[in-house]
Design goal:
The chain is of the alpha+beta class. The protein has a domain of 106 residues: Muramoyl-pentapeptide Carboxypeptidase, domain 2, CATH 3.30.1380. The protein has five helices and five strands. Strands 1, 2, 3, 4 and 5 form a five-stranded antiparallel sheet that branches. GO terms for molecular function: peptidase activity.
Amino acid sequence: MILFAVTALAAFSYSEIGWPELTEEERDPRVTASEAAAQDGLHPIVEDKKEELKDKAAERGIDIVITEDYRSIEEQQALYERGRSADGDIVTNAAGGESYHNYGLAVDFALRSPEGSVVWDIESDFNGSGQADWLEVVDIAKDLGFEWGGDWDHFKDYPHLQMSFGLSIQELKEAAGVQ
């Protein structure tokens, strides 16, 4: 059984992923960088898809827990400073403004076991379907339009789901006035 610690929430800089730049025609017109930068919670589309994800997972007998969603730039910076200029262990390589969480476009999830504990286990099949519950949730999330951190090349962030709407972190930072 592989367990993932909560501290792996965002342990890298999104710029390391190398998201491809999209043309205007390829962008999702539902969300602009300035709109996302103005969020102080989950973007309404992401909120709706998060609830739909929970409902669809429950239909398959999978109980998911959203462990993180919107995180302000200041909260992100405080996490980034852990193990650097503040006490504690390093928990992220994403400074304030470097995470899709900072723009209301990302959530992290975990599973609730039949015993009621929250687990970051990508192999368990609690619902007995023959497929790992974690991967069932990922399949549902992708069908809903989420991108999965487990697909990234440089750092696997298994709990992370985001809807970037074709917007880069750089575009979001510029819209938010973050250096």
